[in-house]
Write a structure and sequence with these properties.
Blueprint (H helix, E strand, L loop, with lengths): L17 H9 L9 H19 L1 H12 L2 H12 L5 H10 L2 H16 L11 H29 L2 H33 L2 H20 E3 L12 H5 L1 H8 L3 H20 L1 H7 L7 H26 L1 H16 L7 H29 L5 H26 L5 H19 L21 E3 L1
Antiparallel strand pairs: 1-2
Length: about 425
């Protein structure tokens, strides 16, 4: 990021030199996001995001309402996370086949997997919801495995941060809007219209990815490599490449510690004198701040480097947790914006670092490994934290999370960028270019 000020004498752009203006435009990484192809793919990913986000919470609510069992509703949340165990195999598959075709098939299967929900009306049919939940959740992991490689093929390395920022902004908008919209529709008319919208989203995304053509990188076999070694190659690269490996170990610790806060969130609200209903508005506040982070983080990464932005984002997230230990409502609520901004900027920086440091042939496996190591520890620690809450004051658990998060952020400040040779881009940033059919 450079400061804007008066042009220096002899500056060609200031004197109206069109070639200098053209050079400024060519040096703008965001120009790769203004192509028809990238915009079309963003439409496809947005439709898929709507589809695989709309029912995430409502599946569990529906099960609980249908059966009268909160335990079965909780089991639905567990089923949503179960496909994460298959993510290394999905990542390996994404590196061996056309990622675009894999997305098309996944979205079609996702749509078909939701169709039986139209006929669920009785408690004894809850197994249908469970089966659909497994298929529904697996689609998100397929998207995660394929999206990273397609972005790497589509835009040069210096534009990956901008692409991730753009996709993060879309994700945050949907995070704010969909829970409110979905809850309102469910309360008024039930789940059927929401299922129909989710199916339409998957079908629309499948159509988009059928119509576009991206010049994809080809899978390269490693001579003598076993299937197990090939499947776990993503983990080895993720933890063994610097500074990516240091950022990844750091992220595992941070998101596991944040899982403690997730476990005690209702106790925190009670300590602040707020009802559980406030969780929705606080999530919206985090989403709005995350949207801002998606807009500004790419420029910050260019100026300060990805490891530095990651570290500052983590430190900010730890600081944002401090007011949760007090009874002061205003600082606690205001810091939710800092939490949303900090975590989002850290995730964007880590994701971009992962893509830049990973060769095309490993993108699917490394992305899948990243999803697993950053989600599974948090899930496990959330369960442990919920159990500890019966014996330990919630403020001590929050304090533990604050100390670990800020400490991890300070350690991350020691990470340094190493030089990466930029990939030459084709007409749309990929080695061979891309086109719309």
């Amino acid at each position: 990021m450079t400061a804007v000020g008066p042009a220096a004498p002899g500056d060609g752009a200031a004197q109206g030199d069109p070639s200098a203006v053209g050079q400024v435009v060519r040096d703008d990484p965001a120009r790769h996001l203004r192509t028809p192809l990238f915009r079309t793919l963003v439409v496809g990913w947005t439709l898929a995001n709507v589809a695989d986000s709309l029912l995430t919470l409502l599946m569990a609510v529906w099960v609980a309402d249908l059966t009268g069992s909160n335990a079965l509703g909780g089991l639905t949340f567990a089923l949503l996370g179960l496909p994460a165990l298959a993510s290394p195999f999905l990542g390996h598959l994404a590196d061996r086949v056309s990622r675009r075709r894999m997305l098309v098939i996944a979205y079609v299967v996702g749509a078909l997997g939701l169709v039986p929900l139209f006929w669920v009306t009785r408690p004894d049919q809850v197994w249908v919801i469970f089966a659909s939940t497994l298929v529904y959740s697996a689609v998100a992991y397929v998207t995660g495995a394929c999206q990273s490689g397609l972005l790497k093929d589509l835009v040069p390395d210096d534009a990956l941060g901008h692409a991730n920022g753009r996709l993060s902004m879309i994700d945050q908008v949907l995070r704010v809007a969909l829970p409110v919209l979905g809850a309102g529709v469910y309360a008024l008319v039930g789940v059927v219209p929401l299922v129909a919208v989710a199916i339409a989203g998957f079908v629309g995304a499948a159509v988009v990815f059928c119509l576009v053509r991206v010049t994809e990188s080809h899978f390269e076999d490693v001579p003598g490599e076993s299937y197990l070694a090939a499947t776990t190659a993503g983990f080895r690269h993720l933890f063994g490449t610097q500074p990516l490996g240091g950022m990844t170990w750091n992220a595992v610790i941070v998101f596991a510690s944040v899982g403690v806060v997730n476990a005690v969130v209702f106790s925190v609200l009670d300590g602040l004198g707020m009802s559980a209903a406030w969780l929705g508005p606080l999530t919206v506040l985090q989403g709005v701040a995350g949207f801002v982070a998606g807009a500004v983080t790419p420029r910050l990464m260019i100026r300060f480097g990805r490891p530095r932005i990651y570290a500052l984002g983590i430190i900010g997230s730890g600081v944002a947790l401090v007011p949760l230990m007090s009874g002061w409502v205003i600082p606690a609520v205001a810091c939710q914006a800092l939490l949303g901004f900090g975590l989002t900027s850290a995730i964007i920086a880590w994701t971009t670092e992962r893509q830049v440091r990973t060769p095309e042939r490993l993108q699917g496996r490394v992305a899948a490994a990243g999803h697993l190591v950053n989600n599974l520890p948090g899930t496990v620690v959330t369960a442990i934290g919920a159990g500890l809450l019966a014996f330990v004051d919630y403020r001590l658990l929050v304090l533990f999370s604050v100390v670990v998060t800020i400490g991890a952020g300070l350690l991350a400040l020691r990470l340094r960028d190493s030089e990466v040779r930029p990939r030459p881009g084709g007409p749309c940033g990929s080695p061979g270019g891309s086109r719309l059919r």
